[in-house]
Design a protein that fits this description.
InterPro entries: Uncharacterised_AroM. Pfam families: AroM. It comes from Parolsenella catena. Helix 1 packs across helix 8 and helix 4 crosses helix 8. The protein folds into two domains: 124 residues, Rossmann fold (3-Layer(aba) Sandwich); 95 residues, Rossmann fold (3-Layer(aba) Sandwich). By secondary structure, the protein is of the alpha/beta class. 40% of the residues lie in helices and 20% in strands.
Length: 226
């Protein structure tokens, strides 16, 4: 009999997230099997642009389509789709659910541990910063103000830059380079789309230590269930 414990990874984009699992799976305990679900599975980019576009005041989320294209959409409007995937994962026997997005979500219905990266990332960063300002990289300039508000609510002062993980490593490197010489405690890559390779490149270009949410979350879940 298999000793593997199934856990769900729900992307707010489309599954499979081959760009993410290459970094996630090596960080997971050997007994954990990651099963992927996508909130936007079955939708086209045209569907998303028509039905899920952010309205003024709504949180802007960025994720990846199955073919690698970037999708930008409303965090508020995707909540019901994420909830449907949580329900599906539980029916499939998953023992825990990770929402693979650092955005802000309301409380969702669940019967197994439900892990949101944002509170983990914010609490860890606040503890590590020790009252100092940190640098934060978000995918799009339109997310900068909401990032300041979210981090401020968590008690952290931030210096914001933007570069999309879905548009290649060069932009990440260029944005990180602008932080060199800034008096920031470290850099936080505030999107689950940022990769280990991008973390390492950002560290080189900025001269700062870097906190990466995808590996942080995988380590925490492994500690709990591994």
């Amino acid at each position: 009999m298999s000793q593997h414990t199934k856990i769900a990874g729900i992307t707010v984009g489309q599954s499979p997230r081959t760009d993410m699992t290459c970094d996630l799976i090596p960080k997971l305990a050997l007994n954990l099997e990651l099963v992927e679900y996508g909130a936007l599975d079955g939708l086209t980019l045209a569907d998303i642009e028509r039905d899920l576009a952010p309205e003024p005041g709504e949180e802007v989320l960025v994720s990846r389509m199955r073919d690698g294209q970037q999708a930008t959409f409303s965090g508020d409007k995707v909540v019901a789709l994420v909830q449907a995937k949580v329900d599906e994962a539980e029916r499939d026997g998953c023992r825990a659910v990770i929402v693979l997005c650092t955005g802000s979500f309301p409380e969702l219905r669940h019967n197994v541990p439900l892990v949101f990266p944002q509170p983990l990332l914010h609490s860890c960063a606040r503890a590590l910063a020790g009252g100092r300002r940190i640098a934060v990289m978000v995918p799009e300039p339109s997310q900068a103000e909401q990032a300041r508000e979210r981090w401020s609510a968590s008690g952290v002062d931030i210096d914001v830059v933007s570069a999309s993980p879905y548009k290649g490593i060069d932009g990440v490197m260029a944005a990180a380079r602008t932080l060199r010489g800034h008096d920031d405690a470290f850099l936080c890559l505030d999107c689950m789309g940022f990769t280990v390779a991008m973390r390492d490149a950002a560290r080189r270009e900025s001269g700062l230590d870097v906190l990466l949410p995808r590996t942080l979350v995988a380590s925490v879940v492994s500690e709990l269930m591994g």
